Amino acid sequence: MKYFPLLWATLWRKKARTIFTLLSIVVAFLLYGMLQGVNAAFHLSIDNANVNRLIVTSKISLTEPLPISQQQQIASVPGVSGVAFAVWFGGYYQEPKNFLFATPVNIDDYLHVVPEAKIAPEQVEALKRTRTGLIVGATQMTKYGWKVGQRISLHSTIWVNKYDGTSDWPFDIVGTYTFSGDESQEQGAYFNYNYLDEARTFGGGTVGWWIVSVKDPHQSAQIAARIDKLFENSPDETKSQSEKEFTQGFMKQMGDINFIVQAILGAVFFTLLFLTGNTMMQSVRERIPELAVLKTLGFTDAKVTVLVLAESLLLCLIAAAVGLGLADLLFPMLKNTIGVVRLPSRVILSGASVAVVLALATGGLPALRARRLVIVDALAGR
């Protein structure tokens, strides 16, 4: 620490250059924090996928409906402990940007298979009693300021209500739910399947996919094969896979987020490597006589090398701390989009590691030049 004043003074030798370099690195790490945070949020649902569950969809496509009569057959497969279903409703509130993952379910079956969804027993009973009942995730309740007992209307992009000929479906909020371990799952809502099935103009007696809990996760592959075997060569063949595999496949439909993020950040930091490296080389070149004086005063080659690397490290760490700090402050603004409240700590730690690598890469050549400096030649201006 006794050399910190020296490092600080040399860092700000050219204030304008240092400020612009700092700003470039700050922007790079702000971008790093936001993009890697979004990437981590997308992978959070994959990491939280339950190993005891299978997702069974149509072999043709996720959008192809399956007959509800399959439930008893799936439930009879050895190793299956519970079966629930869900249907894609495609709902939004007031305008398309307010998407709400509203799912028609049989609430008892669903809670048995997905115990992470926590709903007060009296609210479960209220849903069963209320044909138009709706149980909304805690995140959405807060977002829109909804209250239990309030009536709202959701517009479906798929289903038409045959009673009024519109795609607007009225609901009465009878409760709210939380989802243990994954707040991003609290952006949805559950309502009665019978309400949808009785009022829709087509697709009666069908569901979107099956959610199957298994007794032994080590037997998941065998159980999935047995389920698919049941409906082999039938008009409604199925594709059964683990919840993790299903989630990964669903994410890939939106694009390879991880590749996109890595490609953008790779381009940014490749450019930054040259920018910061040039700054450090220029800084050392301007201070060659001063470094020669330090060596004359007894500073060893190793100590001079460490001083140059420390200057690069100080520059990168300060900028990275500011950039990642700004990302941490701004990240909660994406809560309503990706459901994650804070920037994951692993992103901050990986960002600090990247800052250290960047400092060593950009300070390496200038430090090597300072180490090989010959005092006589430096003082003579050669």
Verbal overview:
With 382 residues, this protein is an alpha+beta fold. It folds into two domains: 4-45 and 256-379, no CATH class; 49-253, no CATH class. It is built from 15 helices and 13 strands. It has helices at 4-11, 15-47, 70-75, 107-113, 121-129, 138-144, 193-199, 220-230, 243-253, 257-286, 288-296, 301-330, 335-338, 345-371, 375-379, and strands spanning 53-58, 66-67, 80-86, 91-92, 99-105, 117-119, 133-137, 151-156, 168-179, 188-192, 206-207, 209-214, 238-242. Strands 4-5-10-7-9-8 form a six-stranded mixed beta barrel, surrounded by four helices. Strands 3-12-1-13 form a four-stranded antiparallel β-sheet, sandwiched between helices. Strands 2-11 form a two-stranded antiparallel ribbon. Strand 4 (91-92) and strand 5 (99-105) form a beta hairpin. Helix 2 (15-47) packs across helix 9 and helix 2 packs across helix 12. The longest helix has 33 residues, at 15-47. The protein is elongated and about 95 Å long. The two termini are 33 Å apart. The model has no long low-confidence stretch (mean pLDDT 84).
Query: Residue share in helices?
Result: 40-55%
Number of helices: 15
Q: Please give the largest β-sheet.
A: 6 strands, mixed, barrel
What overall geometry do the principal axes of the alpha carbons give?
elongated
How many strands appear in the DSSP assignment?
A: 13
Arithmetic mean pLDDT:
84
Query: Which strand order do you get reading across the main beta sheet?
Result: 4-5-10-7-9-8
Structural class assignment = alpha+beta
Query: What Rg is obtained from the alpha carbons, in whole angstroms?
Result: 30 Å
Low-confidence stretches: none
Q: In angstroms, what separates the terminal alpha carbons?
A: 33 Å
Total domain modules: 2
> What string gives the helices and strands in order?
HHEEHEEEHEHEHEEEHEEHEHHHHHHH
The portion of residues forming beta strands comes to 15-25%
Protein name: ABC transporter permease
InterPro entries: ABC-4/HrtB_transporter, ABC3_permease_C, MacB_PCD
Keywords: Cell membrane, Membrane, Transmembrane, Transmembrane helix
Domain MacB-like periplasmic core: 23-229
